[in-house]
Amino acid sequence: MDAKMRLRMAIQDVQRTEAAQPALSSRRSVFFGPALHRRSESPLGRQDRGRSDFVTPTPRTIGRDMASNADEQKTCPLCREKERLQSFWRNPDFFRCDACGAIFRDPFPSEEALKDLYERSWVAPEASRAETGATDSGVADAIAGYLLRSTDSPSFAGKRILDFGGGLGAMAAALRRRGADVFVVEPFGVDYLTGRGFKAYRFLEDIPAEFTFDGITSLEVVEHLPDPTAALRQLSARLTPGGWLFVTTPNPEGLNAAVSGSSWREAEKPGHLLFFPAPTLKLALERSGFEQVERKRWPIRFPNAPVIKRAIHFLLQAAMVDGSVRMLARKPAPDQGASALAS
Ligand SMILES: [Zn+2]
Fold it and tell me: Given this structure, which CATH class describes domain 3-341?
């Protein structure tokens, strides 16, 4: 066995650990709801559409997709670039946008196929964790701790925090344990999360407008969104000035993706519409009005993994080629960033 083969096997081993371990990167949820019912609107609601110079006011709705519009010109779902697009992976097919760096599925699955996938998953959410959310509670707790430290607070008491794409509620529970008043958005999991005692909503726009948030977490969600920039802008609109947003997404520049190509397990999941190399996610956040955007190198441990696998994780994270891109961003406060929000 040559060195490359051994490396590949080690990585696949780590992948299996992550999959079995309910890591961050296997959490799933979807935000197609409003798009399914109100096609002309954004996936998240009615607000603030098309103000971005990053997104034109008339983005393609999913479902009316490239498969059924073969002669329609291919367009980057993130920045609307039409020219500088090149094939990136085959089978499943992904393209890379040379303008913004996004790597996107082509075509997107139909709305009906995705809705069906998620609805079936939520019939038995605990048995369908690959789709409904598999964040390990220990990992969620570690993230909550890092977020507290980064905001210089002893606890989240008195803070209202939204977990956007709550899955089965692990992150929401970790935030609640640290004192936060937690709201959760999860299109197909409202009943389940309500049963766990959370204030759960199908869509962002369903949360009464008087509620704004000191912080928002969104773990492994943005890759599911057909129009991520619109979503990020709508999240920004619900933050108090100076509030923070923490986002994670699968890392297409990680070692797993590099070695596996189109058989990367994240690329094989039909709900994953686009991937963000770290600079692309930073750009998307900045163009959605956020500032102080930082990639976080917090070491995330997988407490039940064997020592050797934990060591590999540690090395991959240190080299920033692990399975997840984690970023923390701020909404500008009025005195320091008003110009950044002006359109
Ligand atoms: Zn692009």
Answer: alpha beta
